[in-house]
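Give me the fold.
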Amino acid sequence: MNRIILLFCLTFMIIDANGQGSTDGDWYRGFRPSFEDKLQISGMTYILNNQYDFEEWNKYCCDDDSCPLHKLGLLSAKFTHKDGECQVFVNTAGTYRPVPGHPTSYSFDRIRYDFGYGGVLGSANEYDREDLRMMLTCYPQDSAKTIFNADYMLSYPFDMRRMKHENKYTRARCIVAGKNGKDTFFYFVLTNEGVKNFNMYLSDFQQTLMFENEYDFDSRFAAWREKYNKEMLRQNTLHPDTSRYHPNSIFILQPDISVEFKLPSEKDQSGVANILFKSKDSDQILQLDGIRNGTRYYNRLFPGNYSVIVLYNNGKYIIYPDFSFKKNSIIEIDMKNVPIHPSDSESQNWLSIRTFNTSIGERPSAWSDKNKNVRGYVFGEVDTNAALASILNNGELVKQSTYFDGYFAVEVDDNSTLEFRYLGHKTLKVDVKKNIWLVVLMEVNREMFEQVFTIGRTK
């Protein structure tokens, strides 16, 4: 008997967050937000639907990169329809702050990613959005309100790349519904027979997931963040996890500075949560990454005087009080003998401002990277994540390029050389050892852009 499966994909960004968040955020071991938590932060409610059986999920639709649905990301729940020719995967904006737009700028980035459209660098620009709007079908506002209590509702085809999912599903359409500055994506994956009844599947899902009329993101997020921090602290205290990634050093590489922070051995094994830089001039806290208009970006370290804070997942921390540098510096900071401070109210606040590197080296969407001993993120000089950058280890191409958010993980021997190649940027080589966390900011190849401009210019 045929069945339709609806998989709910709240691609949840744990904050990794500064109040905003990151896709596929780093959930602490077995503790993940419940389906109810995710809906609360997204400003949605779930109403039991007799046409669908519900099952909570926390995994991908498929683990194989060759699967046409692998790019949909981490899924959070599954609804199974009674009749059976369709699966529906759902992705919400998660902990991103609400942003204006119909659809939002974050959603245009995802739509562009689904289409594989536009330039490689950065987010969807105004010309990309103009072109993408021509590919979208708009539903009447009455339909958006009836089905999802949304302000607007769009659709577009999703390319299955002439492949089958589960040897059965051959077609896909995406519905985007939005309200209160938040968009939710519903991917309907259908068989050749099921595509004939697409409108029936959409109608059957009516009023199952509904946007709320009144929604306060800040209070919802604060309540969830407090719950998460308490549980994470409890778990780390009761059950130290020796399987987490524990870097021996954190290596930051910008075009104008190279600095390595050598870390002490962790006695409680809770894992490094973040590295923060506190300006001695302004007392402002700087973290290396953040989110702007739904896109991850890099916070540059500028010459100055800082206190360096290495923060652990259980709230303990170490401080190196005097870190100063000038341009074109190569610095090595030994923190191995720096005393560890107990968790306090200030360190708990620091935990709450974490962005993508919620736990350094940890990333649940990279579950296969558990044995990789060099991990980190790569950014382009425009300060956004370097997606699909090539990596060579001692001259040999690594099979896995950087992920969509710039994350990478490789296995190396001591005294290895990693080489990063990214379109429009200078090739970068760095000597590495085992067990380091590496943050790389690549430099634009301006000569290449000048040549392209000259050749393409008309009189």
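Confidence is low (pLDDT under 50) at residues 1-30, 452-459.
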